[in-house]
Write a structure and sequence with these properties.
The chain has 284 residues and is α/β, with parallel strands linked by helices. The chain has a domain at 4-154 and 182-208 and 253-269: Rossmann fold (3-Layer(aba) Sandwich). Helices cover 38% and strands 18% of the residues. Helix 1 (12-23) crosses helix 7 and helix 8 packs parallel to helix 11.
Amino acid sequence: MDLTFLSFGHGYTAQALTPYLNDKGWRVFGTSRSKDNFSDIEKSGAIPILWGSDELRSVIRETASVLSSVSPANGSDPVIQMYGEDLKENSSQIKWAGYLSTIGVYGDTKGEWVNESSPLKPSTNRGIARVNAEKKWLSYNFLPTHIFRLGGIYGPNRGPFQKVLQGKAVKIIKPGQVFSRMHIHDIIQTLLASISQPKAYSIYNLCDDNPAPPQDVLSYAAKLLSVKQPPTVNFEDADLSEMAMSFYAENKRVSNKLIKSELGIDLMYPDYKVGLENLLDQGY
């Protein structure tokens, strides 16, 4: 069996991970429901493969590691629902399985710290769906599943600089509100560490050291760009989408101590300031 890595839902994180896997000798397949996305998958260094195809089932038979970035849909996990039996039939050769979840599973702690052992009390439908998906993946105990609960993801071409420069940034003030986030390169190094030292059924929070108010991040981005500060609006007066409202409905500080102690992670970007400075140096 060669080093075959199957990425279900080959999005931003999986695309950023792929070159590092390629360098280690992995052959990476990335799924999509549409051939329109094949060029992006190919640019990342992965081989595009169509969701629902016979070819995908053939790849599963060769797969040594699996990563799912697919969100829950209609109350179930699409990967388990569609390919659970295929994964089960070939589970003896799968040495690592990763599921990208969210810190939204913890719900609202009014700014208090949570860790991987904290109770799961999601307050949004998205959070509830993620809890159910995590349970489903872990219930497939024939797979060496690892759950990664991600905070906000930022990195090249995905961060506050674009919003600030386009004039779309607004500093929304909700006293006491903080968000946890992580630079994509630190997410990658955490995933690689887990792949190289699997510990089945592990759960890890992926966040940096400094949960911070979102307006502080925008302010620092504008400062680094030497442009006018974005306008400020109180949370009560903000015109937010349903998705944005769900983020502001929860306030927590998320501990990352476990990835440091168990996976030996030394963060390259321990807070948003260092992370944004890196993005500025790299041309955002």
